[in-house]
UniProtKB/TrEMBL annotation:
Belongs to the binding-protein-dependent transport system permease family. HisMQ subfamily. It comes from Paraburkholderia ribeironis. The HisPMQJ complex is composed of two ATP-binding proteins (HisP), two transmembrane proteins (HisM and HisQ) and a solute-binding protein (HisJ). The HisPMQ-ArgT complex is composed of two ATP-binding proteins (HisP), two transmembrane proteins (HisM and HisQ) and a solute-binding protein (ArgT). The keyword Zinc does not apply. Gene3D superfamilies: MetI-like. One of its GO terms (biological process) is amino acid transport. Residues 23-218 form the ABC transmembrane type-1 domain. The chain crosses the membrane at residues 20-46, 167-186, 198-221. This is Histidine/lysine/arginine/ornithine transport system permease protein HisM.
Amino acid sequence: MIELVRQYWQNYLYTDGYQFTGLVITLWLLVASIGLGFCLAIPLAVARSSSNRFISGPVWLYTYVFRGTPLYVQLLVVYTGLYSLHFVHSHALLDTFFRNAMNCTLLAFALNECAYVTEIFAGTIKATPYGEIEAAQAYGMSKYKLYTRIILPSALRRALPNYSNEVILMLHATTLAFTATVPDILKVTRDVNSATYASFQAYSIAAVLYACIVFALVWAFRRMEARLLAFLKPQGH
């Protein structure tokens, strides 16, 4: 048991210079993937909600492909499939990028996250009450101001409950990172299990760590919802 605790301390919580492992890697994958996915999803959601098929069509195709195929397959395509292409490993910059397991994992996670979040945001943009749009147009707002001041702030607030679920699902999806040899929680758990043969204890500790992260995320999103969605609650007389 002492050996198990020592292994977990070294692999989950201990940091040595810039070599972060275990828990920190999982949190980094989560934050980086949802951050990149969020930033990319906002303009794509605006395009996806457009009535012009030449604008919304390519975005629909992108979200259809990434939501219609397993993330595990997408990770394998990015990590091993793309590097097998001649123009990738013959180009110095692409070769350097795709030889790094963390880069490939983060790219696959971010593209997958972006596809789901794009559809979530596009749905709330389309559901914006038309009265708000008419009021903004009557006030003389340009289309840019209409989106930045009325449509997007309202849509992002209303998308918060669905977006929080997607963030939690992304945390669960980070367990696939071990297939690309990224030392996340699950990869470290497998290494600890191989070193100690304490399978129940090893995977139980990993489950507790994931549960703690989920509880923290749920608490944070509930606080955000209470603050940002307070205007949707029925007002007492």
